[in-house]
Design goal:
The chain is an alpha+beta fold. The chain contains 5 helices and 9 strands; from the N terminus they run H-H-H-H-E-H-E-E-E-E-E-E-E-E. Strand 6 and strand 7 form a beta hairpin. The radius of gyration is 19 Å and the shape is elongated. 24% of the residues are buried.
Length: 221
């Protein structure tokens, strides 16, 4: 496993000491890694670098990287899907509690005090906030309890259809795949979970207070 860790560090373009420091590992930890490396160490690496395929790290099987959503993907993953270390910076963003998602995210963002909101580290830059996924409509790619890191967009200018967004609506926030609607002035919201109770629905643009593109999902499992 030591060779695979070094391969990943080389991909990041950083030093071993920088990697150890970012993962919260002790100095020299990489040199001691082998097939018997503890899961706690692997968990630290995967939390610091969610793009790494932990199964590949342990066994050498599969691709080095997972898809940008944090899930396994059968299609090839391009290196440009994940920025290298020198182009990304860990910052702290507000984690919107589930209880606050029933109201307006916009009002919450501007009215909440940082002391009233948990701040969590974002592994990617240019993120507006983090939201905890509630429910199973977007499982398994976005499991209940996971965190999504989002960036607000100008939906009046452009929406990239088929991508996952968080909608801040008059009835609260929802995370869905957005596709065009046959009704003018509406967007159609799709779930990943094919259970009939998560049937598609449409939302009027007039009822949407904000649209946030999901940049990354991190499962807490």
């Amino acid at each position: 496993m030591n060779e695979r860790v070094l391969t990943f560090i080389d991909y990041l373009g950083i030093s071993i000491s920088e990697f150890e420091r970012y993962c919260g590992l002790s100095n020299g930890a990489v040199s001691k890694m082998g097939d018997n490396t503890r899961m706690a160490t692997l968990d630290r690496i995967s939390k610091a670098y969610p793009q790494i395929n932990v199964n590949w790290l342990r066994t050498g099987e599969g691709s080095m990287l997972v898809s940008p959503s944090g899930s396994q993907s059968s299609s090839p993953v391009r290196e440009q899907d994940f920025p290298r270390e020198e182009s990304r910076t860990a910052t702290f963003v507000k984690l919107i509690p589930v209880a606050a998602q029933g109201g307006s995210l916009t009002d919450f963002i501007y009215s909440v005090k940082e002391s009233d909101c948990e701040l969590i580290a974002s592994p990617i830059r240019d993120v507006d906030l983090a939201i905890q996924v509630s429910g199973d409509s977007m499982a398994p790619e976005y499991p209940n309890g996971s965190h999504v890191y989002v960036k607000r967009i100008n939906e009046k200018a452009f929406i990239e259809w088929g991508k996952v967004y968080v909608l801040d609506t008059c009835n609260g926030s929802v995370i869905k795949i957005l596709v065009p609607s046959e009704r003018e002035g509406y967007v159609r919201c799709l779930s990943i979970n094919k259970d009939p109770k998560f049937a598609p629905f449409e939302v009027s643009l007039t009822d949407i207070r904000g649209v946030y593109r999901v940049l990354l999902c991190m499962s807490l499992k």
